[in-house]
Structure prediction request, 113 residues.
Amino acid sequence: MSVLMIRTHRRYALRMPAKLQCERGKTLRCLLIELSQHGLRISNLGEQRFEPGDAVTLDMQGGRSMPGKIRWAHDGVAGMVLDNPLHLPEMSEIIAAGRQHKATQTGEARYGT
Prediction:
């Protein structure tokens, strides 16, 4: 059986390396895999355990930091709600940077695609 989920905000798939700073002082390398105006999803968290409500900050390449709280976490993946929602131009900038990062890694940018 299929279930239709209606989401409040559109989500965008990404694949951007980032660092997650935990309130306990630990910094983890992670991967930003989904972004919306009010939250994001990160993966590659390994065995680190998070609880809903844990305060964290996602640091991205280029110096952008996004503070927020863990909404859910399991199996090395977590959802995070942002303390300050993103404006559409900010979100577009992050998405464009993520696509540029992917293109330079795969060599697509060399051919103008």
Summary: Residues 88-106 form the longest helix (19 residues). The mean pLDDT is 85. Strands lie at 12-22, 27-35, 39-43, 55-60, 65-74, 77-82. The first strand starts at residue 12 and ends at 22.
